[in-house]
Amino acid sequence: MRMRKKKWAEGWMEEHSGYITSTPQDYKGQWKKMLNKDILHVEIGMGKGDYLRQMSKMYPEAAWVGIERDPSAAAVAARKAVEENYDLSNNHMICGNAEFMLDWFGENEIDVIHLNFSDPWPKKHYHKRRLSSEKFLNIYKTLLNENGKILMKTDNKDLFEDSVLYFLQNGFTLTDFSVDFRREEHSEDAITEYESKFMEQGLPIYRLCAVVDHKE
Ligand SMILES: C[S@@+](CC[C@H](N)C(=O)[O-])C[C@H]1O[C@@H](n2cnc3c(N)ncnc32)[C@H](O)[C@@H]1O
Fold this sequence. Notes:
By secondary structure, this protein is of the alpha/beta class.
């Protein structure tokens, strides 16, 4: 469900452009250097940013960048981070559409991409907007390094089934796969806003890990 528009969002983000940027091209190829880490995780469609904030606390040795195209959600995510006053030194946020990621990150710059509860776009006509569709997978293949991987979680069986095919048909191998990820304790992985709602309803969480077959 789309978040109600926050009138303060654009102005707040302009004032905090040192943490949430709408000109990520300025950092292309420089994210690890800027955040002073050797490993870069990128979450696409971070919503209100709970996952990014938790994971960047749990894994302070890595750099974490969250992308969100909805300015209201992006501003809420960044404001929570700034107002919680936690360590922002290993993380950063981008307000923008991931379609343009090739302008924002260098080739082989990213180690791990996280797709959490991406919009399922059920109508066939809109499948190409899915963040796991062929167009996006080709972008990720350029940006992920040799050992790069994509971690995807969803509640949506149709999206999950289709995505398995997208990955296998576009040069990825699945190294992990679960149709009930939260059946067991997974304290190594934070629970997102959407995930906690589905878990409360007793719904299964689907999850996969995909690695790039080989880099040309
Ligand atoms: C269903 S919400 C899930 C939010 C969060 N990841 C979670 O699990 O709670 C999907 C989010 O992805 C964002 N999104 C969808 N397509 C995007 C794109 N092309 N670029 C950046 N964000 C996108 C939407 O605006 C929305 O906030």
